[in-house]
Known about the structure:
Elements: E1 12-18, E2 24-28, E3 30-38, H1 43-49
The protein binds zinc ion.
Amino acid sequence: MRNQDGVITKNELGMAICKICNEVLYTLPTNRLKKFYVVCNNEECIGKTREGDTK
Length: 55
Ligand SMILES: [Zn+2]
């Protein structure tokens, strides 16, 4: 008999999502399902969040 503890499930239910391109940037270890809306490092995403005249 063997004990295989190869699979470890992490409770990373927290997701940081870019609110512009909806890309999941990273996950966070949380007990509940949470969504964090952030902005990724994409220039377009950063530019869209900046207030100003959008042409
Ligand atoms: Zn983005």
